[in-house]
Amino acid sequence: SRQGVSEVIYGAGKTAEQIIGISQSFAKHGQKDILITRLDKEKAEKINSEITLKYYDTANIGIIGSMPEKRVGKIVIATGGTSDIPVAEEAAVTSEMLGNNTMRLYDVGVAGIHRLLAHTDEIMTARVIIAIAGMEGALASVIGGLADCPVIAVPTSVGYGAAFNGLAALLSMLNSCASGVSVVNIDNGFGAAYQASMINHMGGLNE
Amino acid sequence: SRQGVSEVIYGAGKTAEQIIGISQSFAKHGQKDILITRLDKEKAEKINSEITLKYYDTANIGIIGSMPEKRVGKIVIATGGTSDIPVAEEAAVTSEMLGNNTMRLYDVGVAGIHRLLAHTDEIMTARVIIAIAGMEGALASVIGGLADCPVIAVPTSVGYGAAFNGLAALLSMLNSCASGVSVVNIDNGFGAAYQASMINHMGGLNE
Amino acid sequence: SRQGVSEVIYGAGKTAEQIIGISQSFAKHGQKDILITRLDKEKAEKINSEITLKYYDTANIGIIGSMPEKRVGKIVIATGGTSDIPVAEEAAVTSEMLGNNTMRLYDVGVAGIHRLLAHTDEIMTARVIIAIAGMEGALASVIGGLADCPVIAVPTSVGYGAAFNGLAALLSMLNSCASGVSVVNIDNGFGAAYQASMINHMGGLNE
Amino acid sequence: SRQGVSEVIYGAGKTAEQIIGISQSFAKHGQKDILITRLDKEKAEKINSEITLKYYDTANIGIIGSMPEKRVGKIVIATGGTSDIPVAEEAAVTSEMLGNNTMRLYDVGVAGIHRLLAHTDEIMTARVIIAIAGMEGALASVIGGLADCPVIAVPTSVGYGAAFNGLAALLSMLNSCASGVSVVNIDNGFGAAYQASMINHMGGLNE
Amino acid sequence: SRQGVSEVIYGAGKTAEQIIGISQSFAKHGQKDILITRLDKEKAEKINSEITLKYYDTANIGIIGSMPEKRVGKIVIATGGTSDIPVAEEAAVTSEMLGNNTMRLYDVGVAGIHRLLAHTDEIMTARVIIAIAGMEGALASVIGGLADCPVIAVPTSVGYGAAFNGLAALLSMLNSCASGVSVVNIDNGFGAAYQASMINHMGGLNE
Amino acid sequence: SRQGVSEVIYGAGKTAEQIIGISQSFAKHGQKDILITRLDKEKAEKINSEITLKYYDTANIGIIGSMPEKRVGKIVIATGGTSDIPVAEEAAVTSEMLGNNTMRLYDVGVAGIHRLLAHTDEIMTARVIIAIAGMEGALASVIGGLADCPVIAVPTSVGYGAAFNGLAALLSMLNSCASGVSVVNIDNGFGAAYQASMINHMGGLNE
Amino acid sequence: SRQGVSEVIYGAGKTAEQIIGISQSFAKHGQKDILITRLDKEKAEKINSEITLKYYDTANIGIIGSMPEKRVGKIVIATGGTSDIPVAEEAAVTSEMLGNNTMRLYDVGVAGIHRLLAHTDEIMTARVIIAIAGMEGALASVIGGLADCPVIAVPTSVGYGAAFNGLAALLSMLNSCASGVSVVNIDNGFGAAYQASMINHMGGLNE
Amino acid sequence: SRQGVSEVIYGAGKTAEQIIGISQSFAKHGQKDILITRLDKEKAEKINSEITLKYYDTANIGIIGSMPEKRVGKIVIATGGTSDIPVAEEAAVTSEMLGNNTMRLYDVGVAGIHRLLAHTDEIMTARVIIAIAGMEGALASVIGGLADCPVIAVPTSVGYGAAFNGLAALLSMLNSCASGVSVVNIDNGFGAAYQASMINHMGGLNE
Ligand SMILES: Nc1ncnc2c1ncn2[C@@H]1O[C@H](COP(=O)(O)O)[C@@H](O)[C@H]1O
Ligand SMILES: Nc1ncnc2c1ncn2[C@@H]1O[C@H](COP(=O)(O)O)[C@@H](O)[C@H]1O
Ligand SMILES: Nc1ncnc2c1ncn2[C@@H]1O[C@H](COP(=O)(O)O)[C@@H](O)[C@H]1O
Ligand SMILES: Nc1ncnc2c1ncn2[C@@H]1O[C@H](COP(=O)(O)O)[C@@H](O)[C@H]1O
Ligand SMILES: [Mg+2]
Ligand SMILES: [Mg+2]
Ligand SMILES: [Mg+2]
Ligand SMILES: [Mg+2]
Ligand SMILES: [Mg+2]
Ligand SMILES: [Mg+2]
Ligand SMILES: [Mg+2]
Ligand SMILES: [Mg+2]
């Protein structure tokens, strides 16, 4: 089990049958809480007819078992626009499943900087921030400049033309002029939340 | 003569002798004010021994004749960092030579958003803004979101690694989520200033 | 409201329901004229059953409320071929909605330069020109060379093979050897028209 | 002051004079410990003739003032090969300057997996790991799979041909099949150490 | 006939009718064992109604005639994940059809290095190894480091975002820091198996 | 001997000694007229001290023996700017050496379309045209539209930023919307002239 | 009319109605022979119900009116594989429609060089050759080396993986080490045939 | 020791002192025959003043100790042009050092296919072939089609313009339409020879 919390299945390219099989084998080994990412609705329903599963539509995530009751610390998940929300929800549901207090801050893109600044408090009190944006990906730099905590940037494939399916945002974020920013793969909300959870769960140095 | 103000020579790849020749031919046709871009110091000195020329070091520009005394309107030239200043000076000297009141706003990059916001007044009173940045190029979006006037973005080749010599900034700026932003070639301070001058000199609709 | 004229919704990736919701909230705030870009016919019809909307087929634009009666200045919109017309219409309808006299000059590509030259008058009397072309994107340079006003170039994804979905035209336009040309994202007719409108509406310097 | 520890100057593209100026202004504001990255030897010597500076050759770093005496936690810095050491030293000196216990694990690339496995203990006891590699960048995935803590991957420009100056390693690391890995810009040892230090310094949740 | 064993048809872009025609012409020339790659199920069934054909579903391969009874040597086919299995099966069925003892070692990706190391015996006794992986493609380097025999690496188009349809894995494998590794085209299981079979069938030097 | 006219040596990457050796061996086989491309001045002088050689400075070409006295037909060589002239001279000297009447039409780029149109006569009477341009490479399309004869386009590496060393011009020319245009490698003046000479020398159909 | 032979319509992105309209307008101007490229079957049938049109299936070409009876000279059209045939037929039908004797030489790719060499006679007697190939595009170089006439190379989008939709073949052909080879856009059979026809129709120098 | 024959040092980026150190440590462990690749002359001389070393100029290789007296089998090393020879010599000296009979077949590029065919005998009797070429890289396909043995292709960075430092040749070779071809990194003569030696040394199946 990863982080003693739940097991993860990457659902893309697996059939409902395969996912059921893997889940049953996890169950046999005593692991009942399972997070399935990149799961479309149709497959979710097939699985649900065999094993009870709660489906998170926007996040494309299915959860077998239950979310942890105890959530700790604070992970803020910010997006530039509304089109980035599916990626953000993948991150948010993952974050909650891994036991983190999770605050959503959606549609605070840099073209309207004052909407973002209105949330300075949330940004300053976060233990980790996940900054999600497509197109020019500037959000990561602005938040990185404001915050004192680690920022994990997620470029999204939102946009058209010279966005090149997330390449523009990816390059932009890798070149962030703010310190304390690292980057995961395009649209990888899960990966960002997984690392953010590791950081949020860090024990203090004297423990 | 372009804009009835001065003639322009693109100095890159031309010898001092060639530039002298072209300048003399301009002079014969009655054009005495000449802007020479992409001119290195050594060539500038050679030319200066034949034709009096004032050299702008950081801008890599030489000027034969004189700057216009009358300057109109207001062009604001902003940069993300100090390394972008050579490109900004190419824009600024061009802008002044073309008869525009020109305000420099350097090193106001988005990683320290409050430094930029401290200049909201200048941004709101500009007729045109030139936003110059390398690395992630986020400056154009933030300024584009704040300002109501046209913004011309100039990506610079500043940065390393995944900056890919200005490609990251270029893509970022082309995907700006702010309206009213257009883009010129990497490091093309001259081109931005030329178009900005056209816009700043626009006659009112009832003239 | 931007430019005191109308509010804009970027329709791509929004459901009809979401667009209706945003429009109703705009209406509540007293903004009745709304431009919705990247809107397909089907969604337009759904919206129309709730809020009266005029749909511009080729432009993929829906308009709630009405076009402004007063139009000022002159924006010329030129295309290289007939396949570029959808992007041009996105620009043209936006331009009209933002209150600009708008002249269409379609299919004047550089492979038949005399068709373009036959329109020299229109080009010389424009306050701003939007040059739209796919494939090799040469139109921007030729018009930029002819005109004395700002030219905003829009590369389109028209073409095949080494057109690479608009990349060839984009690079071509960024490298335009004519002065006074800037560039927006591939297929971004809206963005070009938005900036063109800003420029066309510039007050004179003594106002 | 960042993290209450030291101020940072990015030395690339700044003259010795400029760096002296900035350092003196920091000193005036009471900040005596300054880290200067991307500083070549020649400039370092010039600065040293004005302000005492300790130069770290391989790291290309200069330090004015002193390293912190107290270092906490544990950051492991691993490299695939010996050519990656300059980037690793940039990370290591930064890490030490920011007050972290820092363990170097160099030349443990995946082509000799047993050398890496021999260090399983260090990997399992780290609070954060920085994985630095050029060429195929596989080190990040293997360490990410072994470790339970956050891994920050740094692609380097080491290699030739299809390494494309770090692009191969960058893409490889972004696609890491291990969870808990994020990535910074090519050769950005400083950036990795800065974020690693933030994570290593995390207070426990009950503090 | 290649290698005196069987004839090969590349099925992609050929109609069932064309494949039947080619097969009948091979039959006339005395070649009865035919391997058809990149063959989808539908076409396979059409062909089967004319000529008896055994279809390998996951491999997308059809075989007319029979597999060789005698298989020699040992080719190990390893994959990083389960999504790489279709490519691996294209390699495996080809390998068997060309008369090689073929061992499948699937889902031994480097993020769980101990699963791979558990198979050290198979790796050390192979005459040739085919290493198949998408995403970051690190498998080839790790196996290349462990094994003393030739390793043929096959990047797959598995992954998303910055995997760029196999480009990340391809570059990674070309830059492998292990000696003895060469690479074939993305998803080219057939090509890898064909060369592996050549190597596995090498006569000893004194024959 | 190619075209019964002269032998060609590609000088790049060959030492003066090697070129002398090859030339002497050609001489032994009765071939006295030799064209050496990509030859820098220094090497040319070394060769000249052994074998009489006429050096064409701008073209970077050396010729051993003599130019043909008889020149036929008409090849027009046009460039967009003055920086393209070295490539154009490589083409022009090659064209003359291969026995073609060769007309130079330099600096007729599309940003000043009337300069090009002033030469309509030359364009309409050419048997083949070589169109050479860097930056946006639009010249090929405009000439291709005007002329009725084959046009061979040569992209040059002239430009900066998003010119990407000739890539922008290359893509632009490959996408030319004019019929009758084909393209050679970036800066390949020799290759264009070689094919142009083949075409110019075509016998009529009734010969 | 181009070449006094027939008018051309590029069918991609035009509706059947638009094509009928253009064709009728051509007819009014006395041009009855019309070549329509990139025309799919469905549209062809719609047009045919209004104007008699002969449809060439593999070539995706429709012809209104008739092919010229007189055909002159000799254009050889070679392909590397069978998958390149649609592009080759676009070239071949265009070539015939423009009045050229046209010889098809299909599936003579360089992996079986003797099949190509068996046709040396045809290659040596051609006036122009069109070399069409996908994947590695080596055909152009081999034919260019054998033939003394101009070779026009057409890269095709045939292939998978690192073929990158024709990019590999395109780059390969642009770098051909044989003299006398030029290149057109990926899959542009029409463009190659159009220029080939121009060359094949060249009058002799003494006409 | 690799293959029980000699130890290898990759000299690029190592100082003479470092190489001496490593070599002495190898000597202590009883390994006296050392192959040092990517070694420039200057460093070689420094090393030679400490440890006797034979330097291979064109190959950029230094050898400490001696070449093996016994060489077995047959590796053929072919190049397209003369500029590819440094890479070929890196392969050839490596091959000899690893105990293989090595035959050089240089400058047999496909633009003169008959020069290559004149060597059909050598090609048919090789146990492994290394095909080395820059520019369009077609050599690998032609040799792959002729030969029945494994072919290892090495793209070189020879060429200019759209050769993109070996990218064109690399893509070309990865897409080879011949079976039995695999590819190593650009300019990686060593890597090709290392794998070729493994294959050439294969024991027969009955050993
Ligand atoms: N076609 C378009 N392309 C790019 N940006 C657009 C387009 N249409 C609208 N926009 C921008 O999108 C904004 C509205 O986005 P949203 O808030 O998501 O509806 C507008 O204010 C414009 O800045
Ligand atoms: N999956 C594959 N990928 C690449 N090449 C293949 C594949 N399958 C077969 N081939 C090659 O294609 C040749 C047959 O091509 P064809 O004559 O078009 O059927 C075979 O001899 C192989 O060289
Ligand atoms: N500037 C050039 N660019 C490309 N190819 C060239 C050039 N100059 C000469 N060549 C070709 O190189 C061949 C000579 O190559 P080499 O045998 O290496 O001297 C000539 O026959 C031409 O085909
Ligand atoms: N398959 C093709 N690929 C590229 N260009 C073509 C093709 N077919 C026709 N054309 C060109 O398109 C022109 C007609 O374009 P249009 O006026 O849009 O019908 C012709 O004159 C040709 O130059
Ligand atoms: Mg911060
Ligand atoms: Mg704005
Ligand atoms: Mg102009
Ligand atoms: Mg881990
Ligand atoms: Mg090995
Ligand atoms: Mg023409
Ligand atoms: Mg030839
Ligand atoms: Mg073969």
Textual characterization of the structure:
The structure is a homooctamer of 207-residue chains. Chain A is 35% helix and 21% strand. The longest helix of chain A is centred in the N-terminal third of the chain and has 13 residues, at 16-28. The mean pLDDT of chain A is 94. Chain A has helices at residues 16-28, 41-48, 85-97, 113-117, 120-125, 139-146, 167-174, 189-200, and strands at 7-10, 34-37, 53-56, 61-64, 72-79, 100-105, 128-133, 151-155, 181-183. In chain A, helix 1 links the parallel strand 1 (7-10) and strand 2 (34-37). In chain A, helix 3 runs parallel beside helix 8 (189-200). At the A-B interface, helix 6 and helix 7 of A face helix 6 and helix 7 of B. The structure holds adenosine monophosphate (4 copies) and magnesium ion (8 copies). The site of one magnesium ion (MG) has 7 residues of chain H, from helix 6.
Q: Categorize the overall geometry of chain A.
A: globular
Report the β-strand fraction of chain A as a percent range: 15-25%
Q: Widest sheet of chain A: strand order?
A: 6-5-7-8-9
Q: Main beta sheet of chain A, described?
A: 5 strands, parallel
Largest interface between protein chains, with number of residues from each side = A-B, 36 and 36 residues
Secondary structure: helix percent of chain A: 25-40%
Low-confidence stretches of chain A: none
Distance between the termini of chain A: 23 Å
Query: Helical segment tally of chain A?
Result: 8
* SSE string of chain A, helices as H and strands as E: EHEHEEEHEHHEHEHEH
